[in-house]
Amino acid sequence: MRSENETNQRRAVDFEAATDIFISAFPGATLAEVHDRALAAAKNCDLMGFAHEARVLRETAGRIKVRMTH
Under a CB-based contact definition with an 8 Å cutoff, are residues 40 and 59 in contact? Predict the structure, then answer.
């Protein structure tokens, strides 16, 4: 069962804004490159035990992929 803090964190993420910010962190990179970086960062977060951050990065990667196809 999720704690109240975890539930609040899930609701608090604006994924569109997070995606925009993540893309802007890599000026000149293609969306495919940024997508790969988001997935790599998610894997690193998983390895370090940062489950929330990994989830946000995976969701961000998913939204980047959608932007790549539209």
Answer: no
Give whole-number Cα distances, 28 to 24, 25, 34, 50, 59, in Å: 9, 10, 10, 28, 22
pTM for this predicted structure: 0.81
CA dist., res. 36 & res. 8, Å (int): 28
Q: How far apart are CA 41 and CA 7, in angstroms?
A: 22
Q: What is the pLDDT along the chain (70 residues), one digit of tens a residue?
A: 566 665 555 568 999 999 999 999 999 999 999 999 999 999 999 999 999 999 999 999 999 999 999 8
Structure tokens at 62: 């998913």
